[in-house]
Design brief:
alpha/beta, Alpha/beta knot, 8-stranded mixed sheet, 9 helices, about 25% strand, globular, binds S-adenosylmethionine
Length: about 230
Amino acid sequence: MDFVKLILVFVEAALELVPKECWNHRAVVSDARRRNKRPDQLLLDRSYHHAAMKNLVDAHKRGRPDIVHFCLLTSLGSVLSKMGLLEVYVHTRDDKLIWVNPETRLPRVYERFKGLIEALYEQYIIESNGKKLLELKDGTLTDLLSTLRPDKVVLMSEKGNRLTMKELGMLLTSYKRPAVLVGAFPRGEFEERTVKVANAIVRIYDESLEAWTVTSYVICSLEHMLGC
Ligand SMILES: C[S@@+](CC[C@H](N)C(=O)[O-])C[C@H]1O[C@@H](n2cnc3c(N)ncnc32)[C@H](O)[C@@H]1O
């Protein structure tokens, strides 16, 4: 077995600051007032900004920071991560890249998670006791993969080839540093540029699943194969 580490990337994540065209909408203004922030400092969140999002391009894929929150909690809390066998990144639909230190203890409460990510968008780095916990950079998924140089890129999609958990575990452990891409958006299709970077497309069930369910399935497939 060649396996060293899994690179898990949440791609096209529905995570972004409120775009300019929504700053003056009353749903955004009242949320900003409630949170004592400016509209441009808020994360776009459909639970609060639904009415303001009506005319946004790709609105159905946007404004769901809770998806990344769940996926990160699932990944960072896993045995695979605690054993140092997991590296986690977030790629957002507007091409920001977030590196997450596996030792980061993310807020469990969603509103506090949003506050942390909003601070990250202002400061680019979040540190605690001199240790970097989160880092935000501009960059595409292709930029990230050309830096990380995985030896296999597997895209998780309901349109891929069906594999069992055992087959997925066997596939991933046959590479040193495989990257697995999971879409962190609620609905819709992957962009063509995301599909193009993949060497394999894998389906684990014949219907669409939530991103965090797929995340835990991928992690379990490896933990099981490695006997973690
Ligand atoms: C809610 S889905 C996004 C909706 C989209 N129709 C889709 O599945 O591509 C969240 C993500 O979980 C993964 N996913 C969902 N269903 C899957 C399945 N049956 N097999 C493999 N991955 C799946 C994909 O990476 C997907 O982008």
